[in-house]
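User: I'm writing a short report section on ligand binding and want a predicted complex to refer to. Could you take this sequence and cobalt (II) ion and write out the structure as tokens? A short remark afterwards would be nice.
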Amino acid sequence: MGYVEAKLAPIRNTGDIKLQNAEAFEGMRRAGQLTARALDMVTELVRPGVTTAELDRAVLDFALDHNALPATLYYRGYSHSSCISLNHVVCHGIPGSRALRTGDILNIDITLIVDGWHGDSSRMYAVDKISRKSERLIEVTYESLMRGCHAVKPGATTGDIGAAIQTYAEAQRMGVVRDFCGHGLGRLFHDVPNILHYGRSGEGIPLRPGMLFTIEPMVNIGRPHVKVLKDGWTAVTRDRTLSAQFEHTVGVTETGVEIFTGSPNGLDCPPYATV
Ligand code: MF3
Ligand code: CO
Ligand code: CO
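Assistant: Sure. The structure tokens for the complex follow:
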């Protein structure tokens, strides 16, 4: 696997890591910010009685109102505008008729395509008052994501990101999911390299300015193991313990990291009311 100037490469996954220019970063800022605004918008819709299909519909309407398309629509047979993962669902929960209930925690994952660029981000939401245990899981997962983001700089490696996440989450006695990872993206939704949320510092692929990828750790209160349900998408914890996830789309700059999907309203990790 080598590195290639993105402008000179086809959009598809060629196995080479694309290094993007300033114009691409501008496009990623627009896509990332619209995605963050979509995640902000759903914040006030999350309340008891609302179905996950209704939340998904609001995401589709928001996208279409802003000249964007949800990347998950018709992606590999998926047919929704978001993934909504409740409680012990790790990721790729399918929106449907399930109504939210007091005490639920949920992840909403949205990827919007704006002028061909992908902004991919997810956050945790709480329905009304949640348990202290749920709140702690959410806080640890958010802190894991941010530690991963701050490990990003030229010369660091993908293993430094994974190590930052794993070391912290496991010190809090929580399990880091191994079966899903972050990914390169840009004009493509899922590209090389894989960004593992575990690993050893100094291992993996060296980071270079111009690389674009997501960091999206999934953290479980219990063991890290997951299984995928018969619908082919929904991943749940094997031990049925609660799971949380946060995701940002980032770029490697000359000096460090740029987070494209930060909330313009300070809602990256809202305060959660506990019982
Ligand atoms: N947004 C997810 C990610 O973070 C991917 C969802 S693919 C879907 O990479 F098909 F499940 F929607
Ligand atoms: Co992603
Ligand atoms: Co995502």
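A remark for your report: The radius of gyration is 17 Å. The CA atoms of residues 36 and 263 lie 5 Å apart.
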